[in-house]
Amino acid sequence: MATRFGVAALALAMGASLAGCAGSVKGEIDGKKPAAVKSGFWYTAYDGEDGAIVFAVLASVNDYCTVSTKVLQDQTDVVADFIQGRIDEDEANAEIAAISEEHLPSEFWETYAGFLADDMGDFEGDGYDMSGEAPDSVLEIYFHDGYIDWLGLFFSGDAQGTETKYYVSESGGAEVTAFDEDGVFKGKGEAELIDADGGSAGDVTFSFSVKRCEDYEDALEDFYALVAAG
Asked: What are the distances in angstroms from CA 206 to CA 14, 83, 121, 164, 210?
């Protein structure tokens, strides 16, 4: 599985509220139409000396900011127990599966539109390149059928018992029409997608208007700190 723009690797994909989100993903992916977007959010994946990366997230799940944050927090607790030897791998995977099954549908779609800029004040504008060679934006789409084995993905790169299909933009372009660090992030674009094996997967257009999910950012920071310390 590819890393999220080379910085937010395996950033536990999850959540925001329908009231704060409008968005769509239109087209066909491997012959399927993505399910309707029900909620979304945006989060900061990286903000440092080398620039800033933000992701707009759209999902076919209601209240995805709240849901993803809760799932990530609970699964981080399980990873902490595993790292500290309180539970073994089988027990950890069973608990992670139970958390996913409690909070997430058995099938759902996620779309991540990632954007790179020199700093957080430079995101608004057009001409974002989605090619795989030197992108300053990227579109990633996931179709999940079954629970997400994040422990297996993170520690071994192998997600046992899951059917998660991954697609990424090979070409295309995007425009950021509005960006407020404390408010709404708006944009639109189009992309030609390839699958995990590099095969052509279809074309999509997308748009989003989403609010920031700071609770998810905090949960993600806690997860990375745990893994770095472990």
From this structure: 18, 39, 23, 21, 13
Q: Is the pLDDT of residue 4 over 50?
A: no
Residues 6+ apart with CB under 8 A from 90: none
Whether 166 has a pLDDT exceeding 90, the answer reads no
Residue 121, number of CB atoms within 10 A of its CB:
10
> What is the distance between the alpha carbons of residues 171 and 168, in angstroms, rounded to a whole number?
9
Nearest alpha-carbon partner for 144 in 22, 39, 59: 59
* CA distances, 117 to each of 2, 46, 61, 200 (Å): 20, 10, 29, 28
- Place 25 in a pLDDT band, splitting at 50, 70 and 90: very high
The helix (run of H) or strand (run of E) holding residue 71 is: helix 64-83
190 and 205 Cβ atoms separated by less than 8 Å: yes
The pTM (predicted TM-score) of the whole model is 0.85
Q: Please give the backbone phi and psi of residue 108, each rounded to the nearest 5 degrees, phi first.
A: -160, 160
Q: What torsion do the CA atoms of 71, 77, 83, 84 make, to the nearest 10 degrees?
A: -170
CB distance 76 to 222 below 8 Å: yes
